[in-house]
Amino acid sequence: MASGIHAVTFPGESAEYRRARNSLLRAEVKLRQRIAAVAEQRRKLPAGGAVSTDYLFDASAPGEDDFKQVRLSDLFAPGKRTLFIYNFMFPERVGSMTPCPSCTSIIDAVDGASRHVVQRINFALIAKAPIARFREHARRRGWKHALLLSSANNTFNRDYHAEDETGQQWPLAHVFTRRGKKIHHFWSSELWFADPEPGQDKRHVDFMWPMWSIFDRTPEGRGKTWGPGLEYPAT
Fold it and tell me: What is the mean pLDDT of residues 26-36?
């Protein structure tokens, strides 16, 4: 095979295209290998800090009309020792009660996938907004599956760096693990705190935001100024 990788070609392509595509393919193979290596390094992290507070949340599902109170420890279903949490910026800004459009676009994609995720691990969304407001937003978006939690009456967001001293909310992903009765922090999306490369955003939760990966496969790319909105003009 001419490329050293495969012998596939597509209709009408030129020799110039195939040379460039084969070069890109080699880079993609190296990237795949690097992604796997970083994932293995992540899995080998030792236990992080023990969780000292069994936080109490207001909890609901998008289709429920009421809410209940659950503790962090209650979020671990029998046989599942890992909990993935996404801190949703709601409100997006201090003094408002508007949900973050970017966080919304993430969960627009993730809500359906969460049905599959919870077959292996526990999964929940946390917002500072009251649970009724969070549930109302979820219903407007058509979310049906992800567990919704409100941290309005606890310090989880502040303790785990999804809220600053002014009350501004930040989008972070977290992983917690449970061994017996002890819960430990395992991982958070700390790329949020690292300076991005010139012309780039933080990209700390791109792993759960497929829209950008789709754009990355196109000639237009991600663009410089566009971002997701809560609504778009009818076409």
Answer: 98
